[in-house]
Amino acid sequence: MNGEAMAAEAAAEPVEASLTERYLGSVQTWECDTMGHMNVQFYCAKAWEAEQGLFADLGLGRRARGARGLTLRMTDQHIRFHKELRAGTPFRVASGIAAIAPDGLRIYHELQPVVGGGVATTLTNEIRLADRNDPNRSLALPDEVLRGAEAFRTAVPAHGRARGLDLGDARPAPRLDDPLVAKMVPMQRGAVMPHECDEAGLLRPQGVMGRFSDGIPALLGNMLGWDRSSDPDSGGAALEYRIVVRRPAMAGDVLCCFSGIVSISGKPYTWAHWMFDAESGEAVATAINVGVHMDLRSRRATPLPEPMRGAFEAHIVDGLSV
């Protein structure tokens, strides 16, 4: 399981997905952000819930993992946002296994509105098995899990593959004292809380994405002096994300995040976000995402306002990547 395999998959021929419903529910008001749609962290949360059922079917549910001293870790994630999910929308998560390897599974998810059909979001997560007492230590999947995974095989359809991001191998993990960090803008700092962690005490994928998402208003405040709450007609939306989780974070860890602009191309712009353990200086996660400015009245992407474009151009950091 590596970036080259993900990149090859992204270039594959069009296919149909074979998926099984793993989550069914609706968007709650408290899951929506100031843009009026479900916040990106909850897409990750629903996919994580779907994965729990899948692993239970494979014989690696919570009880089985606990009895064997095992845990699960997400190490790489690719997301594409196709349409908004607003408060009250009923939706399902349908899932399948896109790649099987001794060191992990690549799981493909679609968030699908129950009414009207279509696809709201696609997520592809690389999941590894780890030692619960040493979650940095990856373990081989049991043979029975590898055999059972074949029953849930799927191909990733064209709409689930990368569009504006490179899914090749990630850069070496940076550290907090990396010279590029000094050129980036602080966007989030805080401690991991117990309720953000899974049964093994590791920060869930929702908590990683949530920090990047929650940090955007502070990032724009630091870059532009703009308080997003004072402008109810303007906002932003993510189109595509890739997150590489470098090591587990646990309750009590203090995390700090920094961002810089990678590029601007027409309406879309590309951010990179780096998350560190503030105490050790180690990278916890690196991410890259394509976003657009959004008119909240028309619910459409619009060109960056000139003052914002100028500020973004001033914060392009050469060499920044995931």
TrEMBL record:
Coiled coil: none annotated. It holds the Pfam family 4HBT_2. PANTHER family: 4-HYDROXYBENZOYL-COA THIOESTERASE FAMILY MEMBER (PTHR31793), BLR1345 PROTEIN (PTHR31793:SF2). This is Thioesterase family protein. It comes from Marinibaculum pumilum. Gene3D superfamilies: Hotdog Thioesterase.
